[in-house]
Design brief:
The protein is mainly alpha-helical. The protein folds into two domains: about 20-115; about 115-125 and about 135-228. Helices cover about 70% and strands about 0% of the residues. It contains eight helices and no strands. The longest helix is centred in the middle third of the chain and has 39 residues, at about 75-110. Bound molecules: protoporphyrin IX containing FE (HEM) (2 copies). The site of one protoporphyrin IX containing FE has 18 residues, from helix 1, helix 5, helix 7 and helix 8.
């Protein structure tokens, strides 16, 4: 079995390591969340392209014309809109599952052992004091680790914002949500881009890390064991 060194040897060993163990709960959560958010993003992709109401009005008119029926733009729009609505309904139901998974993530944070909590990891990294200037590499490693964990916190804040605004759109019949509908839609539309950015940076980051200095990082999220 090979030992994986993620750092040059220094006099002070780092208090944190990227290749750390992950509990079964967090692993199941991560990959379920990955599958659900990917499905949700597919509905957004289709809803904003193939099923876009205004792009399908002419198609509906042409198809009916070929069958001998003439409908005006408004009538054709109603048909095109019905299909787009079906897709956004699906997006909404997947959104409920995603919101449930976020609640699970909060429960996991509370019940899992102290050292596995995101909060403890961030605190450990923030509390690190290099004992000499020879430990620069260790210092950079710990700072990088801390930054990575903070991006997860930022992501959680953003995705909770998506869930809350999504629920606001889903329950638009509630008077307060109806009154704020425009604002809620704008926030939901705007924050989506940060979610895409996180996903891109995250996937590129973990794959690069795994191929570089932190071999086994991705499989660690599957089998759970870390290397130091
Ligand atoms: C990854 C997270 C999500 C992304 C990227 C996303 C993206 C979007 C986008 C682009 C729209 C179209 C907005 C428009 O132009 O009118 C939308 C609509 C909507 N989203 Fe999300 N969303 C996400 C999560 C959620 C969640 C968690 C819920 C919770 C239920 C939700 C519920 C809704 C609802 C109800 C609509 C309105 C659909 C309609 O027009 O009938 N979304 N979402
Ligand atoms: C939509 C896609 C994804 C989302 C939203 C996502 C989200 C997350 C989040 C929030 C965490 C932090 C978990 C925590 O400790 O609280 C995490 C960790 C991790 N993810 Fe993902 N992930 C996605 C896709 C992937 C993919 C495709 C891979 C593998 C190629 C991956 C590999 C990892 C690894 C290895 C970690 C642990 C890294 C570390 O401890 O810093 N993720 N992911």
């Amino acid at each position: 079995m090979s030992t994986i060194h993620t750092l040059p040897l220094t006099s002070q060993s780092p208090p944190v390591a990227f290749n750390e163990p992950h509990s079964l709960a967090i692993r199941i959560w991560h990959w379920t969340f990955f599958a659900v958010i990917t499905t949700s993003l597919i509905t957004v992709l289709f809803g904003s392209t193939l099923f876009r109401t205004r792009d399908n009005i002419v198609t509906v008119q042409q198809q009916l014309q070929e069958k001998g029926a003439t409908v005006n733009k408004d009538q054709a729009r109603a048909v095109a809109h019905a299909y787009s609505d079906k897709l956004w309904d699906l997006h909404k139901y997947i959104g409920y599952v995603l919101t449930g998974l976020l609640l699970c993530r909060i429960i996991i944070e509370v019940v899992q052992p102290g050292e596995e909590r995101l909060r403890t990891k961030i605190k450990k990294a923030a509390g690190f004091k290099p004992s000499s200037s020879a430990d620069n590499a260790t210092k950079r490693h710990v700072q990088h680790y801390g930054r990575v964990k903070w991006t997860y916190v930022i992501f959680y804040v953003l995705i909770v914002t998506m869930a809350l605004t999504g629920l606001g759109l889903a329950f638009e019949d509630v008077p307060v949500f109806r009154a704020w509908h425009r604002g809620i839609t704008k926030v939901h539309q705007f924050v989506q881009y940060f979610i895409y950015a996180f996903i891109l940076i995250h996937i590129v980051g973990v794959i690069r890390s795994d191929m570089g200095r932190h071999k086994g990082l991705v499989s660690g999220m599957i089998h759970g064991t870390g290397h130091r």
